[in-house]
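quick q for whoever's on today - can somebody do inverse folding on this one?? i tried earlier but teh output was garbage lol. tokens:
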């Protein structure tokens, strides 16, 4: 009784701390914790809560001290352990949670709650073997089925994801053990949950014991506990067992209940082929192609026309040709089937995508004729307009197919211009005739006309190598968005065009309207965030980096808890999904690139003073000797299909066969090539980050004991720097084709290889190593570095001068802007490293007399064991090295000044005067043009302003040195 009273008193005293932490008032929580600790200084839970409050206030070191002291004590009360768990989770020290609960279990071996927490601690670090051990301890203590199945699942995960997963023999043994454990419960009639049945079926499938799994699925236990088992399990098992008779009968029953299940039709057709090949003629099955066709035709009957059976007939036609069988006698001409499909479903928005699926199998010489027949089927000519929504949708479908089969690719410039004018007029007619009184969330029925027009305008721009039509396309898209504010297709195309033209501000405005969040930051973030380093707007890039990185870090932490919750609720079927999700996020190429770019931007210090930049650098705790990226496991999580494309993958050839041009690649091929190039880019950026951080660590180290380790790291990174570029150049990557608007923009890899990154940072690293170790003749290395810095400034000046000489200042701006931004990045990183070096050596006493007194120099030397801070070298050598650093800094200041002047001379892009006439011809509001052209002018002004501010800050930083 007394113990319960004491616990109630403690809980009442701690409640205000918990309440403050829960609402995020960490300062108040700290005050409340200190009040409690004044009366009870040894109270473990209050100390743990204080540590948590300090941690959330950013006072990490104080929090760590308290947690470390608590970890050395004997703790076995659950509240304190839970608070300590929060502290370890928030500092990403999950392994220490295991150690803490291991200690607690020794103190209270019969405590079920502590044991279950230990199990969850092992779940967080994927220690499947110890999971199994603890789960069996729990089951021995409290014989409950959930604990038993925790052990079973842990064994399964050892087989599928453990360190021995590649060992087939061990995998087999582990899965057999898991099966035997469940068999024991089944024989004892103790199985009592649906999730346990799911797990058992999965275990049998992992062992490829499909017959046992099927028998169990059809058995009494499964019928009783898992009556809602999805039919997909049965279909998979029948397919694996090659039971084509049962599968065929089952699918016929399913299709009779739902005639529009396209996925069922594909499996049904496969089963028909298998039955025919095996010459099995069982009753109730469709074992010939004639019977298969007859069944599909039967599914076509009915008052309501559905797409499924018509798509199935096209699929059957395709598969017969694949098997070298003539489908025409049975099904008719393939082209006629496609046209019939268009007649029936051409008024649906999905029709074009459906037909696109099967166009790949239409001979090349028939495709243009097919597109022409679709236009005729619409009943719309060059002098007529759609009379209703259905006719308009059929026209849109036929135009999309025409583009896909390559009709637009063979048109001349004049015909393309006429086509985009016609499409724009069709769009306007559709808005006025069929787009009235739409809900704000509805997409206008005529919007696809405008989207196709934008693609045609891009084609025109590529033909004439000018920006006029692309700016016109932006105006059309903005007009479209004023009518259909939620049309994400238009937003994505606007984003693509703005980035293509190097207008980061316009792209950001559109990106914000997309409201991309959560997992989309990974799957769709590449369309904007991946290009932020090239836009020259650090003030825009940094918040977007922060949002993206916060999603990744939060999701990676939270996903660990999803695993624990899956065990608690017995959702074993979701466990591996969560694990796969976590691995995909952790190994995302986009995540890795954004992480590195955010760090490089912070080190380059586009904003803030030198002291702020150095403080930020230290807080990031970069460890150049560690490479945490799993290069072989990097994943491409981009959703490239989010932008629908109608561009052809092949063009007409003289012999009538399909011919692939070198510049044209499928979306899949382009994605693989882009991923490979960006992975190479990541190698260079990580190398740059590590080399720069190594230089700074070497120059700012205050602990002589670390000198040898830092020096060794620096030397290895210095030697590896050249190898990174050799590897990248040997790969001989080519920029991706920009033939079509929806193509992925060329990787930033090419600009980095084209600019003097390699030589400049090699020279910088060499110079840092020289001055740190006191090597002879630092001046020669200083001269080499100065020459590299001059080449960077000269390159920036050349890029801006050549751009100013162009008549169209918008067309090539993206390429020029990327090079200018990269040149400023090189100079900014060099500035940061060199100023760090200057401060180090000037404090060491190697500067002129006004920099420090002899007494201070003597005190510093005595503080380092009678030797200088710099590797024990004499003051004369230090002075010589300081002179070399000052010499480089003077040269750097001159080059920064040159860049500053060059930026002043950078001409502002102007929109063509012909554009207003074109917009008037389309009856577009002139305000649209004013808005778009204003964005380009404002973007240029802001880019120049931010880059100049960065340069001026570096000049001030260098001048103070």
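ok took a stab at it. sequence:
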């Amino acid at each position: 009784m007394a113990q319960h009273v004491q616990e109630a008193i403690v809980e009442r005293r701690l409640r205000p701390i918990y309440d403050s932490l829960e609402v995020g008032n960490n300062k108040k929580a700290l005050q409340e914790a200190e009040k409690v600790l004044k009366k009870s200084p040894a109270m473990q839970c209050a100390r743990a809560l204080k540590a948590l409050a300090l941690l959330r206030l950013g006072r990490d070191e104080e929090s760590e001290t308290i947690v470390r002291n608590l970890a050395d004590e004997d703790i076995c009360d659950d509240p304190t352990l839970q608070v300590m768990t929060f502290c370890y989770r928030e500092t990403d020290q999950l392994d220490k949670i295991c150690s803490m609960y291991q200690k607690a279990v020794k103190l209270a071996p019969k405590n079920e709650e502590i044991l279950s927490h230990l199990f969850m601690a092992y779940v967080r670090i994927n220690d499947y073997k110890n999971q199994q051990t603890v789960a069996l301890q729990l089951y021995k203590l409290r014989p409950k089925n959930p604990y038993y199945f925790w052990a079973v699942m842990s064994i399964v995960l050892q087989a599928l994801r453990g360190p021995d997963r590649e060992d087939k023999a061990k995998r087999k043994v582990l899965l057999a053990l898991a099966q035997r454990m469940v068999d024991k419960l089944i024989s004892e009639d103790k199985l009592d949950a649906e999730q346990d049945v799911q797990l058992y079926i999965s275990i049998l499938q992992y062992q490829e014991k499909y017959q046992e799994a099927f028998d169990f699925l059809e058995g009494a236990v499964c019928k009783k506990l898992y009556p809602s088992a999805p039919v997909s399990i049965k279909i998979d098992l029948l397919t694996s067992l090659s039971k084509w008779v049962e599968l065929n009968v089952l699918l016929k029953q399913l299709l009779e209940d739902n005639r529009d299940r396209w996925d069922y039709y594909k499996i049904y057709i496969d089963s028909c082929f298998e039955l025919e090949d095996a010459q099995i003629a069982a009753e109730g099955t469709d074992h010939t192609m004639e019977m298969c066709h007859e069944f599909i035709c039967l599914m076509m009957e009915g008052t309501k026309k559905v797409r499924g059976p018509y798509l199935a007939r096209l699929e059957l036609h395709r598969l017969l040709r694949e098997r070298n069988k003539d489908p025409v006698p049975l099904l008719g001409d393939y082209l006629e089937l496609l046209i019939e499909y268009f007649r029936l479903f051409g008024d649906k928005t999905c029709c074009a995508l459906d037909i696109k699926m099967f166009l790949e199998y239409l001979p090349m010489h028939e495709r243009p004729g097919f597109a022409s027949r679709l236009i005729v089927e619409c009943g719309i000519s060059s002098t007529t307009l759609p009379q209703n929504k259905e006719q308009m949708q059929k026209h849109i479908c036929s135009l999309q197919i025409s583009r896909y089969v390559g009709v637009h690719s063979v048109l001349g410039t004049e015909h393309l211009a006429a086509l985009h004018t016609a499409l724009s007029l069709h769009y306007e007619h559709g808005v006025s005739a069929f787009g009235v009184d739409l809900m704000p969330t509805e997409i206008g029925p005529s919007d696809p006309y405008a989207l196709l027009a934008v693609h045609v305008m891009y084609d025109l721009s590529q033909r004439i190598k000018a920006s006029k039509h692309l700016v016109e396309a932006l105006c059309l898209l903005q007009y479209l968005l004023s009518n259909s504010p939620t049309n994400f297709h238009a937003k994505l195309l606007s984003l693509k065009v703005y980035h293509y033209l190097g207008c980061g501000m316009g792209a950001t405005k559109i990106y914000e309207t997309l409201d991309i969040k959560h997992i989309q930051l990974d799957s769709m973030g590449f369309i904007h965030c991946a290009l932020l380093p090239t836009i020259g707007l650090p003030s825009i890039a940094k918040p977007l980096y922060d949002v993206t990185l916060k999603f990744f870090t939060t999701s990676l932490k939270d996903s660990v808890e999803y695993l624990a919750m899956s065990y608690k609720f017995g959702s074993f079927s979701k466990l591996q999904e969560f694990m796969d999700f976590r691995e995909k996020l952790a190994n995302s190429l986009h995540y890795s690139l954004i992480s590195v770019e955010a760090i490089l931007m912070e080190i380059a210090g586009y904003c803030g003073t030198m002291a702020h930049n150095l403080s930020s650098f230290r807080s990031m705790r970069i460890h150049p000797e560690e490479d945490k990226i799993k290069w072989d496991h990097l994943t491409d999580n981009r959703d490239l299909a989010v932008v629908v494309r109608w561009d052809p993958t092949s063009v007409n050839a003289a012999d009538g066969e399909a011919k692939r041009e070198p510049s044209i690649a499928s979306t899949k091929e382009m994605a693989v090539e882009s991923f490979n190039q960006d992975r190479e880019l990541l190698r260079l950026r990580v190398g740059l980050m590590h080399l720069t951080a190594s230089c700074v660590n070497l120059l700012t180290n205050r602990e002589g004991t670390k000198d040898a380790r830092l020096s060794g790291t620096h030397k290895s990174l210095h030697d590896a720097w050249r190898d990174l570029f050799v590897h990248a150049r040997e790969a001989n990557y080519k920029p991706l084709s920009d033939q079509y608007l929806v193509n992925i923009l060329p990787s930033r890899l090419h600009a980095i290889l084209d600019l003097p990154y390699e030589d400049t940072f090699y020279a910088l690293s060499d110079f840092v190593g020289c001055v740190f170790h006191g090597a002879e003749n630092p001046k020669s290395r200083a001269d080499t570095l100065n020459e590299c810095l001059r080449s960077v400034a000269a390159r920036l000046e050349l890029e801006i001068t050549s751009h100013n000489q162009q008549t169209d200042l918008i067309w090539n701006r993206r390429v020029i802007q990327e090079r200018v931004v990269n040149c400023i990045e090189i100079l900014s990183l060099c500035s940061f490293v060199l100023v760090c070096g200057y401060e180090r050596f000037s404090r060491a006493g190697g500067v002129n007399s006004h920099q420090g007194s002899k007494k201070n120099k003597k005190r510093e030397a005595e503080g380092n064991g009678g030797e200088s801070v710099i590797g024990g070298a004499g003051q004369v050598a230090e002075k010589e090295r300081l002179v070399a650093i000052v010499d480089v800094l003077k040269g750097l200041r001159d080059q920064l000044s040159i860049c500053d002047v060059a930026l002043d001379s950078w001409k502002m892009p102007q929109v063509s005067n012909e554009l207003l006439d074109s917009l008037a011809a389309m009856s577009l509001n002139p305000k649209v043009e004013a808005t778009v052209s204003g964005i380009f002018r404002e973007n240029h002004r802001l880019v120049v302003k931010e880059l100049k501010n960065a340069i001026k800050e570096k000049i001030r930083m260098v001048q103070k040195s």
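fwiw DSSP finds 43 helices and no strands in the chain. also The CA atoms of residues 81 and 875 lie 55 Å apart. so keep that in mind when u check it
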